[in-house]
Amino acid sequence: MKLVDDTTKGSLDSSALAGLLLITATVFALAISNSPLAPIYDQWFGTLLEIRLNAKSVLEKSLLHWINDGLMAVFFLFIGLEIKREVLEGNLSTPAHAALPLVAAVGGMAGPSIIYLSVAWGDAIALRGWAIPAATDIAFALGILALLGSRVPASLKVFLSAVAVIDDLGAIVIIALFYTDQLSATMLLAAGVGVALLALLNRLGVHNCIFRTKVTGDSGGK
Q: Sign of dihedral through CA atoms 147, 150, 154, 159?
């Protein structure tokens, strides 16, 4: 009798491989950053890449910004979708279960920040970095769990994912409130419109990208 079917086994294997690649890339990055190749490494990440539609419509960012602002946004999208599924029908579907990662995330932000403040107290410049330890590196947290594979219960992975996502969202709010000189009202409005549109589509029962609403009841066999 198989305890794990082939599909689940393949998923676990791919997750472990992703975690192994993450840790390996991190070790190489740390080694290069602390070697004579560090200037070349930094220069490579500073390479400018652009998307050009015409002479006036040009989006230009460094490779580092494409990773941080582009790929990480996609990463958080997929993590957010996983958390949404758990909230709707999984391990976070009840208020009691959802409250635990929320409380843990708040404690995970407040605890390290308080420790930082206690150590840096008296240094006006150092105190400005109080929010640095507040964020959790969700990619590494999930990568380490992926390396452990089936030895880690799925509920623990969901819990840690929820904690890390809430923690990072809290860190983003902290950055916006305490480390941003000027908020862009236009971008906030655009984000609000996007959220409202998604909420409307969800309310209408839209389940695919061609805006076809969910059909309920008798469809007459068509």
A: negative
